[in-house]
Design goal:
The complex is a heterodimer of chains A (135) and B (138).
Chain A lengths: L4 H25 L15 E9 L6 E10 L5 E4 L11 E4 L4 H33 L5
Antiparallel strand pairs in A: 1-2, 3-4
Chain B lengths: L1 H30 L9 E2 L2 H11 L31 E2 L14 H33 L3
Classes of the chains: A alpha+beta (135), B mainly alpha (138).
Chain lengths: 135, 138
């Protein structure tokens, strides 16, 4: 049994939550990107979490299994003067929902804080454990 | 003599060890608060402590040799009771994605567990102090 596996567990969760926050930041930043590197409008991205089970144990940390693109339809806006408008005058805008992204960001930061607290508490306990038998 | 000393500290030692394991399980629950289909886990502390005191620690958590191949020779320490029996928490407000972690409950359990861990630490320290006082010649 590793004494430091709580740090691994909380650390994996912090890494996963910060990746989620990264994706949210990317979504918000690209809320108006009508063309990406492939010429297509930006699509909102989501991270998928899964449990990282340790060998021989039933509990474990968390890892990001993948980043998926939101397949919901793009927002069509009527802008006839836009250089990327189609022949009917519509421009396909990214399907990013800023409200969803804000909620996602708050949720990620709360979960991150909870894991920081877990790590701090465990650190204190371990330091106290080191002083067993001292004065 | 030494065996009797370690035997007198054994209860608190096993309690600390179990508290540490429970801390890990609860940390896993908090870490997986946003993982779809994750089910919150916990174990019955009193039951596991009684089992450990009766039957010894489960194999793997004792001082065994690390084996990286199936053909390695084990440490030769007999495994006691089976592995820790992890139960599933009954959710009060299950969410649609199949996750049963209730963050408030988990954090309460985590704080409770860490206070009890420190209690065990204080008790084991007190026992050691008592033994030290008894050992001194004055």
């Amino acid at each position: 049994m590793s004494l430091f596996s709580i740090f691994d567990i909380a650390g994996s969760a912090m890494a996963a939550q910060s990746q989620r926050m990264n994706v949210t930041a990317s979504n918000l930043a690209n809320a108006d990107s009508v063309a990406g590197p492939d010429g297509q409008p930006y699509r909102a991205k989501q991270v998928i979490f899964e449990t990282a089970v340790r060998q021989g144990r039933e509990s474990g940390g968390v890892r990001v299994a993948g980043v998926v693109e939101d397949q919901s339809p793009l927002n069509l806006q009527y802008r006839p003067g836009h250089p990327l408008a189609d022949d009917q005058g519509y421009v396909a805008m990214p399907n990013v929902e800023p409200v969803h992204e804000m909620v996602n960001m708050i949720s990620a930061s709360r979960s991150y804080q909870a894991n920081v607290e877990v790590m701090n508490t465990s650190k204190q306990l371990m330091l106290k454990t080191l002083t067993i038998g001292e004065g | 003599m030494i065996d009797k000393l370690s035997e007198s500290l054994r209860f608190q030692q096993e309690a600390l060890n179990l508290r540490h394991e429970r801390q890990q399980v609860l940390a896993g629950n908090i870490a997986n608060a946003d993982t779809p289909n994750y089910k919150a886990r916990d174990f019955n502390f009193a039951g596991e402590l009684a089992k450990v005191m009766e039957q010894g620690r489960p194999g793997g958590s004792t001082l065994a040799l690390t084996t990286t191949s199936a053909r390695h020779i084990g440490g030769g320490i007999a495994a006691g009771a089976g592995p820790r029996e992890l139960l599933y928490r009954v959710p009060e407000q299950p969410s649609l994605d199949g996750n049963t972690v209730d963050m408030d409950r988990e954090r309460v359990h985590f704080a409770d567990n860490s206070v009890r861990y420190q209690t065990s630490l204080a008790l084991i320290n007190g026992q050691i102090q008592g033994l030290k006082t008894a050992l001194q010649s004055e």
